[in-house]
Amino acid sequence: MTKAQYFEMCEALGTEPVDSEIPIEMDDFPIEIQQVFNIYFLMSDIWDGMSGTYQGKNTTIVFELLNVYDIPHEDRLIYLTFIRAMDNIRKRLINEKVKQANDKKPSA
Fold this sequence. Notes:
This protein is mostly helical. The chain has helices at residues 3-13, 31-42, 62-68, 76-104, and strands at residues 45-47, 54-57.
C-alpha cells in the first residue's frame, strides 16, 4: 500500500492517519540511503547450487558502482556498512524461507 492509498483509505473510513501505520516510501529516505539501495540491487545474487541457499550479493563490482554514483571516498565506509547490513538481513530472511519451503516438502 502506498502513502496515497493509505490516506485515501483513512479518508474513506473517516479515520485519522496513524504515523506508525503510514507506509514508508523510498523518497522518505535521505538520498544517501536511496543510493545504497540502488547500488545494492545492481549487484548480482550468489546462490549455492547444491543446497539452494542464498550466499549474498556479489560485491566484486561495489567499488565500480560507488565510482559511478560519485560517492566521496570519505563516505564509502558508511555505504559499505549499510550494504553489508542489508545483505546480512536479506540473506537470513531468504534462507529462512528456503528452509521453510524445504521442510514442507515430503521426504523421498
